[in-house]
From TrEMBL:
Keywords: Membrane, Metal-binding, Transferase, Transmembrane, Transmembrane helix, Zinc, Zinc-finger. Coiled coil: none annotated. It is a single-pass membrane protein. Residues 96-138 form the RING-type domain. Pfam families: zf-RING_2. This is RING-type domain-containing protein. One of its GO terms (molecular function) is zinc ion binding. The chain crosses the membrane at residues 25-50. One of its GO terms (cellular component) is membrane. Belongs to the RING-type zinc finger family. ATL subfamily. It is found in: Membrane. GO terms for biological process: protein ubiquitination. Its main location: membrane.
Length: 142
């Protein structure tokens, strides 16, 4: 028995020629690129939809508070009191969180009804003219 000539291609392997191998590799590469493109498109679509849903939810839940005008500030402002050393306030802070000055005896204070935080009358009135939340805890003030 003689061995086959060296230039003859083997017919026993999975690919009888290099053209079959090239065609299969091209198909696999095209398939991988298409799967990656579809994955990217699906990711972008899901990201877009979730962002839109989140924006719609936050715009419905958190409508910006309308600033109070001077008439509403006077009629809706919490009552004021004079500070004395025995005044019972929320927390242990004895200073105005807006101007950071300590309360002195005889200072006019305004205590917010829900959270019981106290502030100088002028400080909190200026604060409440632009927002309706407590400067300390951000609770609804009025």
């Amino acid at each position: 028995m003689r061995p086959p000539p060296p230039s003859a291609s083997p017919t026993w392997g999975p690919y009888s020629s290099s053209k079959d191998f090239d065609a299969n590799m091209a198909f696999i590469i095209i398939l991988v690129v298409c799967v990656m493109a579809l994955t990217f498109i699906a990711h972008a679509a899901i990201h877009f939809l979730l962002r839109r849903c989140h924006q719609r939810r936050t715009s419905n839940e958190h409508k910006p508070p309308t600033p109070l005008n001077d008439d509403e500030l006077i009629t809706e402002a919490p009552p004021s009191l004079l500070f004395s050393p025995g005044t019972n306030l929320a927390g242990a802070e004895l200073e105005c969180a807006i101007c950071l000055a300590e309360f002195a005896e005889g200072d006019g204070l305004r205590v917010l009804p829900l959270c019981r935080h106290a502030f100088h009358v002028k400080c909190v009135d200026a604060w409440l003219s632009s927002t309706t939340s407590c400067p300390t805890c951000r609770a609804f003030a009025l």
